[in-house]
Amino acid sequence: MNPPSPYDLPPLTMAAIFLDMDGTLAPIARRPVDVRVANDMLMLLDLLHTRTEGAIAILTGRPAWQIDDLLAPRLYALAAEHGAGVRMADGKTLTTAARHLDVALLERTVRHALQSIDDIYIERKDHGIAVHYRQAPRQGGLIAEQTTRIAANTEGVEVLNGKMVIELKAVGVNKGLALNTLMAHPPFAGRTPVVFGDDTTDEAAFAQANAEAGMSVRIGGGPIGGMPSCAQFSLANQQALAPFLQAWLSTNTK
Ligand SMILES: [Mg+2]
């Protein structure tokens, strides 16, 4: 995979931009709560928002309120929790199949199954449970085993693997479907999707953008979790994104 040239990208007036948060807009931190978005990235997003007439959205595993905190004061269109909740550019929100999950019961089940494992962070979201194990990397196999067993025994729940995190979420919720939902509405509709992401959870959005003659850009090279990426392009690392977005803006001077 090669880095894209900013000249390969659609003009900003024709682009719908979709960005992941952790590892894409912001560098990954030891704990999710320690993540911050750099000021220059906030300014770039603001410029892109103006130049695309609002056709920019965040596709994230995080709950919406965390994204709003990280990108304050602007409220961007977003797909939260991998698309379980979608907020349109006009602020209207949609909730998808995930509302049928009993998250409280799921949390109790996960906490019970993983009670003997130290240094993990079990996060209860609105529509699922995330088990973060960045501080206990050798426990990944055991956590995968237990969460897979729970998913097999819980109607409508599936496992989603990310970097140092394993999530239990509703079946049929992913960033590709979320991208579709956003693309069906203004100001995204009729534009060319351009997706930036760094993790296995972004692959569904990459595939959807490819299918719609859009562009997909992986942050960081190489396969993740042993699987090759379906992204068309890659950037070397998270630090390469801001200069790239700046170059895209520069090719679109009015
Ligand atoms: Mg990410």
**CA-atom Rg in angstroms:** 18 Å
Order of SSEs: EHEHEEEHEEHEEHEHEEH
CATH-level-4 superfamily name of the largest domain: HAD superfamily/HAD-like
Low-confidence stretches: none
What does this structure look like?
The structure is a single chain. The chain is α/β, with parallel strands linked by helices and 254 residues long. The chain is 28% helix and 21% strand. The protein contains seven helices and twelve strands. Strand 3 and strand 4 form a beta hairpin. Helix 1 packs parallel to helix 7 and helix 5 crosses helix 6. The longest helix has 13 residues. The structure holds magnesium ion (MG).
Q: What's this model, at a glance?
A:
This protein is α/β, with parallel strands linked by helices and 254 residues long. Helix content is 28%, strand content 21%.
Task: Name the features.
254 residues; Rossmann fold; Alpha-Beta Plaits; 4-stranded antiparallel β-sheet; 7 helices; 21% strand; binds magnesium ion
